[in-house]
Structures are given as structure tokens and as C-alpha cells.
Design a protein that fits this description.
alpha/beta; 8-stranded mixed sheet; 4-stranded antiparallel sheet; 16 strands; binds zinc ion
Length: about 400
Amino acid sequence: MKRPRIAMPTVNPSAKDPLRALRRKLHRRPELSGQEIKTPEFILEYLQACPPDEILEELGGTGMALLYEGEEEGPTLMFRCELDALPIQETSGSMHASLVKGVSHVCGHDGHMAIITGLAEKLGEERPARGRVVLLYQPAEETGEGALQVLKDPRFAQIKPDYVFALHNLPGYPLGAVVVREGVFSIASRGMIVELEGLTAHAAQPETGNSPAPALSELLMEMPQLPEQLSFNDFCLLTPIYVRLGEKGAFGTAPGVAQLMFTLRATRREDMQQLVEKAVEKVKKTAQKHDLNVNISWSDVFESTESDAESVTLVTEAAQQLEMPLQQLETPFRWSEDFGQFTLKHKGALFGLGSGEKQYPLHHSSFDFPDPLLPQGVNLFYQIIQRLLS
Ligand SMILES: [Zn+2]
Ligand SMILES: [Zn+2]
């Protein structure tokens, strides 16, 4: 379905800093993963005076890509930002705080979008000399679904980027510091959902049923120990995140069902594979021991994000040219980013842009993207384009 063009309140172009105004507008109107309908409209509205050569709407669901063609043949560069916000009630108390109850841009995706839109403005005024630039506004990053959806869209398959780049703001790092790492930048993670089924009974005669309680407590205690018991090459972690047994307040019933959820993390792909195998084996053996039916499913699957040497060098040289402080990341971040789906198939880099040492952490209810980072992000991406496409 084509998105209807509705007249939106425009960003005042005479405002001192229109990009900052756009960032704040996006901050005020956050949308959850997979429901990003208005956000792409706000972006297009902003770019009305300098449109791209082509717009791919509803890409991979609610995503959008803007295409800019150079005059001569050359490589295709993709720069990606995220459209989605989080189901968190904002507590920043700022003038531009979220107007949507229980939803907020506390991962800074509003800032990332404004940076890519600043880049769009520059490219709208002057196309690259050669090759092609694709600006991707990806949906549903927070759920780990969006990148895959975009990759599966046949229109994206035709883009075939030669390089893919993305940045994420990093609280706790000096404002404007460029943080790079060759190899894994952020690690892989996935959610494991375990459903155990025994037999309910009267709570007065539990021996006539089969409660999953003993299996549940065994798994809760023993699953997190798996990474220590196995020989992994790198960092591995298994964290219980949720349990449920029987029905709340059903004092007359000995439970027959239980549900457990775990998050698995690993730096290396082969370690994640081993951890998954061992976790499944452990759950199945425990269920068998207690004569329970078991069902295992997976959610929020994120690949590790890997940056190749050439792309990291490009980011590094661009930062040096702009005299931005550089920092090498020693060990990969323990969080995950679905940009890993792109680096799995394409050459590229995910890097960090410090959002201040005193900044609240990502996903903190008071996090607010610092506006002074906007021009720095735009210039850094633009410098990469200059290096490859001029
Ligand atoms: Zn996030
Ligand atoms: Zn994020």
C-alpha cells in the first residue's frame, strides 16, 4: 500500500539549526519497531527542497532507502540508520521529550536519523562524482528483525552495496570520539524460549500429576554455568531473563506448565553455535529426566557485527582528516546490533561516536541524543563518500 501524503507540520527552514529541529521533532514523535509510519514521512518532508534520485518506500516493511547516483561508474556505498524507538517511558523532562506515552528514543536513533538526513541534504545539493550512495532508514532494529526484512526485500537485493557503514552513539565516551575496532565490534545474541509441559494435579495431591518445578529450578541454576563448563575461544554468556510456573494465584493447582527464557551471547559465531547446541541438549536431557514434554523456540537473533580492515581504515582516515579524536576498542561490546546481518554479507564497518562521558546509558529512560554530534556525524560520513566516490 502506498503511504498517503499527508500535510505534516514542517520544520521551520529559517530556524537557526534545522537539523537539530528535525532531531527534536523525531524525538518528540517516537514509533515502535515495525510501526514506523510517520517517521519516514517526517524525513521526506524535511528533504522536500533537495530530493534524492530515487526513493524506495516501505522497504522491508516500514523502511526507506534514498538513492543518489554519481555521473560515472563506481562503487555503491550504503549508510544506515535506524527508525525505531523503545517501549520505555521517557523521564528526561526536556522540552522536546516524547509526546507518546511509554515510547521514547532512548537509544539515540533520532540522532542517527538526523545525521543520515544531514548527509541526504548534502548529497541532494551535490551528487557524488561517481558510483552511488544509498541512505537506508532501517525499521525494527531493536527487535533484531529489521535488517533481515530489508535484506529479504527484492528491491534491496538489486542494490548490492560494495560497502556498508553505520554508526552508533556511545555514552561513556568523550563527545565526538570515533571508536573503531577491526573484526567484531558488537557480539551476537539470541533469545531462547523453553516451554515445559507435565501434568496438572490438585495441589492437595501433587503426586498424581507431574510438576515442571524441579526441572525449572535445575535449569535456572545450571544453564548459566554452561559457558564455564565448555571450552570457548572467546566471551560467552547465558543469562536467565524470565520464568513462569503454573498460574498466578491458583492455590488449588499443582502446576503442569512452565516457561523459561534465556539470552545467549557469544563473540564468535562458532562459539554461539556450540552454546546453542549445548543449551538445547541440556534442556532436552532435563525434560527427559523429569518426563516432561519440551518445546524450544528462538527470538531476537542478532549476528555479531564485524568490520573489515579496509572499511575501518576508511573510517579512521576520515576521522583523522576531520581531526576527530580516535579510540581503538579493545574488546567488542557485549550488546548486539542487527547491522551484523549486513556485515555478514557485505564489506563494511560499524563504529561508535562518543555521546559524552556524563551521558546516561543507552536505553536509560533519561537518555537524550546530544545535538552537537549531528554535524560531526554528517561530516564523518561525507568524508568517507569523498574518499571513495570523488
Ligand atoms: Zn537500542
Ligand atoms: Zn540503538
